[in-house]
Amino acid sequence: MAQSTVIGTGAGYHFQNWLRSKVRQGRHTPSLPRDRNEVQEYQSRVRALLERAAGPRPQLDPLDPTIHQVHQRDGYRIEALSFGTFAGLRMTATAYVPEVDGPVPGVLAVHGHSLHGRRDPLEQQRCVGLAKRGYFALAVDCFGSGERSVTLPGTYHGGLDAAALWTVGLSLYGIQIYENERACDYLASRPEVDESRLAISGASGGGNQSLNSGAWDARFKAVVPVVGIGAYRKMVATGNCMCATPFALAADIEQYDLLSLMAPRALLVISAMNDGINLRYEDAQRTLGQAARIWEILDAEDKVRFEAFPTSHGYHLPMQRACTEWFDQWLMDLAPSGRSIDSDLPAEDYETVSCFPDADTPRVKTTRNLFVEMRDRKLANKQEIDNSLLADVLNVTTAVQTLHVERYQRLSDSIGYGMTLESDDGLIVPGWSVRRDYSSDADRVCILVDNTKDVVFEEPAIQVAIERGWHIWALDLPGIGEATLPYEIGGSASLRGSCEHNAARACHMLDFTLAGLWIRLLRSVATHARREGAAEIALFASRRAATPALIGAGLLDLVDRLIIKQPLASFATGDVFPALSMAAMIPNLLDLGDILDLAALRAPRQLTVVDPHDARGESLATSERTRIFRGLRDRYKELGGDGNLHVIDPHEAIQPGALWI
User: Fold this and answer.
1) Cα 356 from chain centroid?
2) What's the whole-model pTM score?
3) How many CB atoms lie within 10 A of CB 64?
């Protein structure tokens, strides 16, 4: 059969626009204040949404600070230190302490996506510059970066490592907020620091931290996010890190609402004129312009400013100069001096500024450590579950949507055609309709979802099904194949570990899950097939679509035969998931149980699992498969459906007598 990879639906762009149309359209979207009397209520509502995005407030650990190294330099000293935050986490940090009399302003220096975090030479030089101007600078490693990376000397802290935290009810976004609050506590505890004069600044990911922590913690009297502001309407469906992925926030507010929480404190937003589409300076300028209305209402127009520099993404010297002059004005009551920033400031070797200079492996709890600890705790305390609880977690309603089908583009060497299915709310799903010959009718329909609909021409089990008279509907679900978001096509997915990275992030920011969106669409497709006359409906979900379909198996009651190929069988098979779809990283999922606990909600209806995998995407050994599936088998047997559950090898799925066919 011939393969044709594009049928021209523009489904990826439709999906992008569909997602962006939902920004600031939620049930809790606040009205903008018209006068001073309405500002407090407005800020309270925005604050409540920020608190929801950050997640439940953790029980804080004692700071219990430890100074690991001290080095005296000309006009300042360097201290490598660590302190406790929450859940046994320790924040590694470097203090740059100026040699001046009396308490001085304190600056929390948050870094961007440098693999080495606070020890990056540019971060060091920025902090040395602040210390030489009389500021106490505290540079911290955010969770998962620098000395807190899963491997040393440093790794990227986002992707699937960070996404796994969603399943246990945590997020990199919330952890950063609560840990920066704790860093502010430590900064304020230092006798050299005047706790009434605190500030925060960072670039890129550090700009994102400055935005969120500046909005969160009113102790920051001056806030300077650098190349970290744009607009949620652009950030949704484009490339950003998990640390810039707040739960549900973009459904109800825009970034200007978040910035407004800082009024009437001193806010300077700095952008680069040559930056990515999600951080365009024009968007940042409009965003701050909208937020600045709150400063105007509060008669504090002089405390909010926007500056854009003709540079690329980064924290360049002109930006540092603008930041320090802003701090001088609002923390030291100094007029702009025009003092230059030394372009030749020293940076130490990593060992000198490390808390654990001889460490080959992390000495503090990492992203994976925290995930495993929380996972094991939750799976040891499983609750009774039903499909209503699963539907709540996936955000799936029982109602199905009417699908409008358009058929076009005949397949030249096959009996079939291209088609699109459009939901009532404008979501487009492209697909192929393929059958053996004209004598085949639509009484047996198999819905195929995989990495791409084009697998219909390659998957051996589907070829056998076609020969046996099944009518195949091969679909590209949102975020996959032809419906891949435009930003993913350029290869950003390889960095983050999942081709649905930005699709899953966008859904998370808009208060639903990508897996739930897929399950809802599959229910609607099955309903449409039934209305078209199908007497029997199968769903064959493979690779990227496999694990979400297995998790949501109990909600696929409109499907007669469910075949799942190469799903993750259990989150307990490892601590890293390089082959897993981002759609399977569902917030609070493990509160309900592991994957097969949820799959048991399908019992006693037919379920075939082909070649289940472990966390690393490798086939389970026979003994491990038997152990992991024992509970699911027991549930099927208990409900009288023992003959309806099959766990088979790939070659068994293509036998002429294969049970699913």
Assistant:
1) 30
2) 0.95
3) 9
